[in-house]
Amino acid sequence: MDLAPYIDHTLLKPDAKQSQIDQLCQEAIQYHFCSVCIQPYWVGYCAKKLRGTGVKVCTVVGFPLGANDPKSKAYETRQAIEDGAHEIDMVINIGAMKSGNIKMVEDDLRAIKRACRQTTITKAIIETFLLTDDEKVIACQLAKKIGYNFVKTSTGFAGGGATVHDVALMRRTVGPKMGIKAAGGIHNFEEAKAMIAAGATRLGTSSGVKIVNG
């Protein structure tokens, strides 16, 4: 099973150096990963390095807490796309979701969606570790309703990470066509394969090379 096309090759550590970003891009080219997923600061740099290679540039918005004002998130989104991002992984307003303020969560999701181009791939990070199953279902339903391309499990910064249970729940909620990105804590081939079997269509991981090498 060729897992490389599923993988967003990820480096989101705050202390990531340029040499590490260079290595990330080179590995993505070598192994034909779907994208590199990096902090917004690196988008322009990676876009230049990856131009013409087929590897997309993915970045994060409202990361990792999701608590930014929607206008701030929308500005961050527009700037990232202008810099060369093809895919936007945004963190929903988790505090609003936990408070039952569903309208705020929906407005937040819509603000980022409106800031994207028609060709931009959008992913809503719902941070499953912090939500109840009922809240996960609501978050997935909102993202689908608004037209996001993917729902994503985790930032990797809030504890926990992707689980087979959560991916399967998300798949049951959004149906067969919407994308699901499992991210956080996927370290090896067997874990990656289990996420895909549960319904994931994309994997966010910093262990991409290890996964594809078996």
Describe this structure in words.
This protein has 214 residues and is of the alpha/beta class. It is built from nine helices and eight strands. The termini are close together. The model has no long low-confidence stretch (mean pLDDT 98).
For the structure shown, list the relevant keywords:
8 strands, 214 residues, 8-stranded parallel beta barrel, single chain, globular
- What's the end-to-end separation, in Å? 10 Å
Which structural class do the helices and strands define? Answer: alpha/beta
In the predicted model, the low-confidence regions spanning at least 5 consecutive residues are none
Query: What level of helicity do the residues show?
Result: 40-55%
Describe the SSE topology:
Elements: E1 7-11, H1 18-31, E2 35-38, H2 43-50, E3 56-61, H3 70-83, E4 87-91, H4 94-98, H5 102-115, E5 121-125, H6 133-146, E6 150-152, H7 164-174, E7 179-183, H8 189-198, E8 202-205, H9 208-212
Parallel strand pairs: 1-2, 1-8, 2-3, 3-4, 4-5, 5-6, 6-7, 7-8
